[in-house]
């Protein structure tokens, strides 16, 4: 195993663990009260999500090199990059909808002060978030456009768990156990 691959794997796992722990501590402290607190918290969460996405992006490049495949260091869309990697291995990227939802949510958290100012596609009135809904753990949560995006510690724990699962899947050859045939 390349040392860079091991470092990239550890960085993603440690970053996800740190972000999940921080969010749970923030929830326990109630530090997101008030409109200014929500705006700051939204930006911090967005930055954390951006970092996890970037760590995964770099890990996919390392996984490509590990498998003798061409890496795509200039490809910034992590869902597309991971999808291409899995396709090269003859695998599917079942997590694509969640990764794409996380990217949209992350952008709105950062640029729109945590407001769902647009839907998943032009003219849609719902935004799909990147974590499971409370009613149905198999479906991703949604909010109506114009709503405030509330991110809880358990939401982030779920997202961080996804990133850790993806990191481990890349370590084990490309696909998580839930997708293997």
UniProtKB/TrEMBL annotation:
The protein, known as: Uncharacterized protein
The species is: Sphingomonas pokkalii
């Amino acid at each position: 195993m390349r040392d860079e691959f091991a470092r990239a794997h550890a960085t993603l796992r440690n970053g996800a663990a740190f972000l999940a722990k921080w969010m749970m501590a923030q929830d326990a402290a109630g530090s997101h009260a008030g409109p200014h607190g929500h705006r700051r918290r939204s930006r911090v969460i967005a930055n954390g999500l951006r970092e996890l996405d970037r760590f995964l992006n770099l890990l996919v490049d390392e996984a490509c090199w590990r498998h003798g495949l061409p890496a795509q260091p200039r490809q910034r869309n992590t869902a597309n990059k991971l999808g291409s990697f899995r396709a090269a291995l003859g695998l599917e990227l079942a997590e694509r909808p969640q990764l794409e939802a996380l990217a949209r949510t992350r952008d709105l958290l950062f640029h729109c002060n945590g407001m769902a100012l647009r839907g998943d596609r032009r003219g849609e009135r719902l935004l799909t978030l990147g974590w499971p809904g409370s009613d149905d753990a198999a479906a991703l949560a949604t909010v109506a456009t114009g709503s405030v995006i509330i991110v809880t510690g358990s939401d982030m724990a779920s997202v961080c768990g996804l990133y850790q699962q993806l990191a481990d899947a890349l370590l084990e050859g490309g696909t998580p156990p839930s997708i293997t045939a």
